[in-house]
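hey team, just a heads up i'm posting the complex here instead of the shared drive bc the drive is being weird again. everything in one block, sequence lines first with there labels, then the predicted structure for the whole assembly after. its two chains so it's a bit long, scroll down
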Amino acid sequence: MDADFASQCPAPWASSDTVTLAHGGGGSLGQRLLDRLFRPHFSNPVLATAHDASVLPNPAAAIAVSTDSFVVRPLEFPGGDIGHLAICGTVNDLLMAGARPRWLSAAFILEEGLPMTTLARVVASMARTARRAGVEIVTGDTKVVDRGHGDGIYINTTGIGVLTSQAPIAPSSVQPGDAILLSGDLGRHGVAILSVREGLKFESTIESDCDLLLEPVEALLRAGLDIHCLRDLTRGGLGAALHEIAATRQVSIDIDSEAVPVCEAVRGACEVLGLDPLHVANEGRFVLFLPATQAGEALRILRQFRAEASRIGSVRPLATVPVSLRNAYGTTRVLPYLSGEQLPRIC
Amino acid sequence: MDADFASQCPAPWASSDTVTLAHGGGGSLGQRLLDRLFRPHFSNPVLATAHDASVLPNPAAAIAVSTDSFVVRPLEFPGGDIGHLAICGTVNDLLMAGARPRWLSAAFILEEGLPMTTLARVVASMARTARRAGVEIVTGDTKVVDRGHGDGIYINTTGIGVLTSQAPIAPSSVQPGDAILLSGDLGRHGVAILSVREGLKFESTIESDCDLLLEPVEALLRAGLDIHCLRDLTRGGLGAALHEIAATRQVSIDIDSEAVPVCEAVRGACEVLGLDPLHVANEGRFVLFLPATQAGEALRILRQFRAEASRIGSVRPLATVPVSLRNAYGTTRVLPYLSGEQLPRIC
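-- predicted structure starts here --
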């Protein structure tokens, strides 16, 4: 149990305590779980009202909304856990629309028999990441399913952000001629999950890149760049993101494969595992589309946060191939659109 | 498959098709599920933008937010299904805060092997209820978990509503002297679920009361009544709702047990099953707290929607017993606060 949590909640249960079906009923046990485990971490004036719905101030601007359920296995992995992931995932999705993340809901589906100490660690982790992101968890829900119908913890977070930019930051704004920038190296999250799941050992532990994208995105927005589109590279990785944007906007995309940063450890692991890093999930990386004339300035900003940030390609009018990869010899190949994630339950 | 669905989506899959893990990956199979199953039902201009987050207009007022995950077993039951329930539950929670429900997110955790036709029926049911409620499903998510780690379909809905009343409608507004009104008879949802789960047969099928509370709540608000609090009677039933409000507001509540309507079929089933209808979950009933002088007018309005609506009690200053029940002979007993729902996975 982490120190932060222990100091706030001095042992409200024994280390052998587990979640029971009655914790998910509408009675005093559920109330106790709420009062002793969730409220000490997620406390804020809105959550304190204890009503069916939480009332938030008038946002006085257009709002962005995003939802994600998290079913990652295992619950804790090198570089993160399901709680940290559940905050980063939804906060990042709001950022990708150019919104400032403000409020989150958190809904838990717990499996009967889950150790309370595991739940406590995950909730403490969520609270820490939410604080760093400057978001408030304003409403929540807990359900318990019988043993064998869950996998410890599933979490849904739904986020509300306030739009800060006038021009829409979306696939529909992408233009032929746009430069495509990548915020960092690829593949760490997927490889970290797979390594721990399969009990693989590499020379050095590969940690997930799971993180908030708040700082680089806010720096880009502050610089007044004409950002056309942002997209984080989660399920399906860079490959799926580029295919979705190309299909939505009806354009083609050229990628310089030598410019796509992948660290040695991830490259090695991918070779052993038979994975293509371009299709592996990330939880702290994004691509940026903007006019080529502004690419240098944007890259300078991105590199303040991650040195490996890179300009990886450009957009051109629709051709027969939606996404092509060019290598150092000038040979091009088609980047396929995979039918599904190479690794199930990555997030 | 219902007619509405069949007409919109002429057989996009064979009747033997099931959900696979790849449908939850970020690839073309997931995209196909979205395009062929979800979009035809949930289509609206916001959802069509296909981005990480959906952008909504400036609400220009305070907003209410509510989240619930639904894990009801079985997925389909007399009087409803998990899709209908997932819309009603969140829409009703927003109404209980005096908000006009506007936008919903919908996130699915599907179990590998789920028949596509089951998913299609549930999604069609959600779409129908959302249309009736006047809410738009603006963003969504689909995850697939491996067989044995789910139970067909779990759904999270998170709703945003726009506040319409100035005075807060919340437990904190309840006053000693307030009258307590109940919008209809109790216990149908819990008994309907339990009957089908346990294969029990009663003389007549008891249907769930699962329904939108939009019409009675809007009629009450339109009448300009000084509504202090609204609370729907889901997990834990009337008992849990009264206990939570009494504890939040630090008041005591007196209930006239003869005034609490329970239909003959539910009363009989509860006797056989050893349940107290006051603690059984409902999905289409609520209590209303308001000044006693306005109770007659409020009751008249409630009875336009359900003849069994009744004035069931009143609020008094805090005493030793939080919630008491008085019977026809004038004897009072303590209404206990149960530790958990009598029936797990009721919603």
